[in-house]
Structure formats: structure tokens, C-alpha cells
Amino acid sequence: MVKKVENTKYVEHIFNDCEDTIVWSCLQGVMGEIYVENDKNPTSSMAILGDFIFFAGEPKEEIVLYKPERCKQDFIIMVPTNDSWGECIEQCYKDKAKKVCRYATKKEPNIFDKKKLEQIVDTLPQDYEMKLIDEDIYYKCREQNWCKDLVSQYEDYNFYYNYGLGVAILKDGELVSGASSYSRYEGGIEIEIDTNEKYRRKGLAYICGAKLILECLKRNLYPSWDAQNKWSLALAEKLGYHYSHTYNAYEIWGYL
């Protein structure tokens, strides 16, 4: 029977050597949840935070098919730690599972060129305004589908104020682009960047990314970047990140 883990210490070994910050957030008890298929002697586990699930240990259909009560969405991204987990996901979800490639970047705390990042921020046109995400912008993000993931993992502004960090670009008071902490872990954040479709291809994501990295460095936080696609990877590399490896994930549509 699948159960939620209250004390994550006794499942850390299952996620041994995991470099995914989503998993770190869950194991550290900052955000997200950990589940096991057997709370007496667990050999199979999953970490879930937002739209992501990471599996580790012995592949088991019971845990792949389990959907926590708090998950109301019908879409999720499942990340297998090996081919056996991938086969298990495919077997369980069949045509609902779309196999995709994602791109990890190296976690290198001292590689960022602050001067270059500041120069990027300075290219923001004068008719735009950049601000840290405050309470007003937090609620603006929640009201619009294109930018809700900037703050969606923070149940209220107080939680975001204490654990989140983000920057926003506005034009005539309208939110048009933003970069924020999709999730938080001890010592860093996982970056999320979104731009209103009408304002894409103007370099706003590039500017937001540079500013958020600078704000992280001021606070001794590492700005982790996991790229959904090659465009995101290219943007990360322009900001100073280095490619680490490609990995498989499954986008599950009809997650019931």
C-alpha cells in the first residue's frame, strides 16, 4: 500500500546520488512530498512536487499508478531513474505517456559572470519596468495561465515571501515576462521563466533570467536550471550555464 513519508531520512538511500533539485526539496521537507510502496521496509519511492514526479528504487506498477489525493491536475511529468522505470511507466500509461528529452545543466556555483549579467539587465528598453515579485505581482501571476507556474507551488504570498524569489517585467503596468523559483531547496532554487506570447522574441526571458541569477547570487542561493527543450538549454548557455546531460521523461496526459 502506497503511503506518504513523514520522516524522509529513512528513504534518502533510495534516492542516493540524485542530482535533481525537485527531489532535494522533497527530501529536505522544504516543498513537495515523498511516497513509498511499503512504509516498513521501502524499496520503491517517488518524489512529487508540482507537475513533476521522480521515481527511484525498484520499479513497481503500484507506485507508478498511485495518484496522491492532493493532485488535482490531469497532466504530470514523470522522470524515471533508469530504463526499467521507463518501461514501467510506458506499461502503466501506454498512449497517455509521451516520451520526451530534457536537458540538465551542470551545477557550478562559481561560473557566473556578474558583469555580463548586469550588462544584460541594462539592455531592458526604457518603456519596460523590472521589479521583484511582490504581493501584487504574485496575485497577477496566479490570475493568468501563461505565468501561473512562476508562483504556483506557493499556496499563498506569505509562503512565497519566505521561500520564493522572482523578478517580473511589466509594460504599462501589465505583467509581460517573469523569472521565478519554481521550487526551493536548501541553498538554492529551480528556475522557471515565462513570457506572454505577445512579447516573445524580444529578449525579455534573457533579461529576466540574468536578473534572477544576480538576485540569487546576492542571497547565496544557487539558481539551478533544468531545460525543457533545446531552446531553454540555449538560453541557459547564453547566461553562463554548461550542458550536463540529456535524460528521458514522460509527459502524462490524462493523469487520473
From TrEMBL:
Entry keywords, A to Z: Transferase
Organism field: Clostridium bornimense
Protein name as it appears in the record: Acetyltransferase
Record-linked InterPro entries: Acyl_CoA_acyltransferase (IPR016181), GNAT_acetyltra_N (IPR042573), GNAT_acetyltra_YdfB-like (IPR027365), GNAT_dom (IPR000182)
SUPFAM superfamilies: Acyl-CoA N-acyltransferases (Nat)
Any one Gene Ontology molecular-function term assigned to this protein's record: acyltransferase activity, transferring groups other than amino-acyl groups
Domain (N-acetyltransferase): residue spans on this chain: 128-256
